[in-house]
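$ run holo --ligand "thymidine-5'-phosphate" --emit tokens
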Amino acid sequence: MIKGKFITIDGVEGAGKSTHIKFICDYFNKKGINLLLTREPGGTDIGEKIRELLLNPEIKTIDNDTELLLMFAARNEHLKNKILPALNRGEWVLSDRFVDASYAYQGGGRGISDSRIDILSNWTLKDFCPDLTLLLDIPATESIKRVSAKNKDRIELEQIYFFENVRAHYIKRAKQFPDRIKLIDSTKSIEQTKKNIKNILSNYVF
Ligand code: TMP
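-- output --
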């Protein structure tokens, strides 16, 4: 029996997830709700090892299906050994990225069809899905500018058209699931974006 709520935050690189995650945690803390913060790929011992493999810029060749399968292997571990137990204890969970990222990056970016990703999603998640997803949106040109040129991970090294396709796929998902995924214009100032997030959270939670 799931009692807690599961919130996810997603978007292309440089969209401001880190800044706004802090804000969201503070927002909930003030309401007396302690959020368990976690991330994908990662969040468990095995998941973090898989993350190291997936993001290692020295690994030049990885088949698109392998990349997708590793994302879902990490997610399976994350769901069963961290997210579900926490929700069942009545805790609230905030995940920095979740399944929408696979549709956006491996679907939009790498060109794997949604129907193939659905197979893995049905296998690992069944009918589980976030209660709310905050999707921070910026154009790909802005994303490239905001990510530091130094120390890019394997995925950050992709070209602009990759991020254009990722973004387009995120927007497509937001249109497909408008009740769950809230698209937030993250080109606005940090203060304005915080206000927009607060409005969504206040309508949703209290
Ligand atoms: P980040 O957490 O620092 O944003 O880095 C995670 C990277 O992994 C980011 O480039 C998005 C990518 N990613 C996928 O390609 N597919 C996924 O399913 C997930 C969760 C992340």
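-- notes --
Residues 13, 39-41, 71, 96-97, 101-102, 105-106, 155 surround thymidine-5'-phosphate (CB under 6 Å).
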